[in-house]
């Protein structure tokens, strides 16, 4: 197991105290084939330095649907260090480098991490999202800078779950939440400028409405197909492909 070199060039001065604390969590470093090659802090994994643009690490994106088939979205809190105030899918985070979340058989480590973060960010009790109800679909490898200091470079596991849940949102993590159907989500992407429009009235709205880059990639390439099969999602063939989308 290899630990990446430390780099202190990126200061955390001025950021939220709780978010700074979370930057000391240890992410799982992987190669481009998703082989575990060590660990490093969340801070080091996300820094842009002269030597590197972040370090590739394991992550997950949860798409939680209610019993009516609506997708739960969150708007990331202003306190977040990467992509603050951006709208995204239900929950996006990292499995951490300790035994329970390193475990790879059946993606169980990633699912445990997803269960943990759904509770941390959205207050969803673990019993409402049991591990066996998460459906792993595929992985995407992407890289996208948040600003001149911070970047996401992730091997992102995509998980879908359909459940009735109670929310108790953590305001340090999540600014707002909303459920959307397919038409409403498409309109959100229109409003964000994802689709071209000549409607002058939407120009300010497009400037203010932000969508995370990984959410854009998943929406553009996969989400409609999965959504249309939501009622039979547990019968969908697991995709072992790694989609390199750099």
UniProtKB/TrEMBL annotation:
Domain annotation Nudix hydrolase: ranges: 55-208
Gene Ontology biological process terms, A to Z: dimethylallyl diphosphate biosynthetic process; isopentenyl diphosphate biosynthetic process; steroid biosynthetic process
An MF annotation (GO) of this entry: isopentenyl-diphosphate delta-isomerase activity
Pathway note: Isoprenoid biosynthesis; dimethylallyl diphosphate biosynthesis; dimethylallyl diphosphate from isopentenyl diphosphate: step 1/1
Keyword set, alphabetical order: Isomerase, Isoprene biosynthesis, Lipid biosynthesis, Lipid metabolism, Magnesium, Metal-binding, Steroid biosynthesis
InterPro entries: IsopentenylPP_isomerase_typ1 (IPR011876), NUDIX_hydrolase-like_dom_sf (IPR015797), NUDIX_hydrolase_dom (IPR000086)
Xref: PROSITE patterns: NUDIX
Gene Ontology CC, one term: cytoplasm
Enzyme class: isomerase
UniProt entry tagged with the keyword Lipid biosynthesis: yes
Top-level taxon in the UniProt lineage: Eukaryota
CDD domains assigned to the protein according to its UniProt record, in alphabetical order: NUDIX_IPP_Isomerase
PANTHER family xref list: ISOPENTENYL-DIPHOSPHATE DELTA-ISOMERASE (PTHR10885)
Protein name: isopentenyl-diphosphate Delta-isomerase
